[in-house]
Specification:
The chain is elongated. It has three helices and no strands. Helix 1 runs antiparallel to helix 2 (43-51). It has helices at residues 5-38, 43-51, 54-69.
Length: 71
């Protein structure tokens, strides 16, 4: 495999997770702000729902790290 292919693939893996996380958090955050404005007792659930997409970034980071370390 080429010397440049692994870092590019690792970057794409991390970038994909980060973009997906940003998109998901923007949608969940907007809906969550409206929900909390109407029913303040839902704040705890909304915080969890906003934090949940962060697992995509963590997974992308782990995949990128494994790709670089396994070569």
């Amino acid at each position: 495999m080429s010397e440049w292919a692994v870092p590019i693939g690792a970057g794409i893996a991390f970038f994909g997770g980060a973009v997906a996380c940003g998109y998901a958090q923007s949608r969940i955050g907007a809906a969550g702000a409206g929900a909390v404005a109407e029913k303040p007792e839902t704040a705890g659930v909304i915080i969890i729902l906003v934090a949940l997409p962060e697992t995509l970034v963590i997974l992308g980071f782990v995949v990128a790290t494994l790709m670089i370390l396994m070569t």
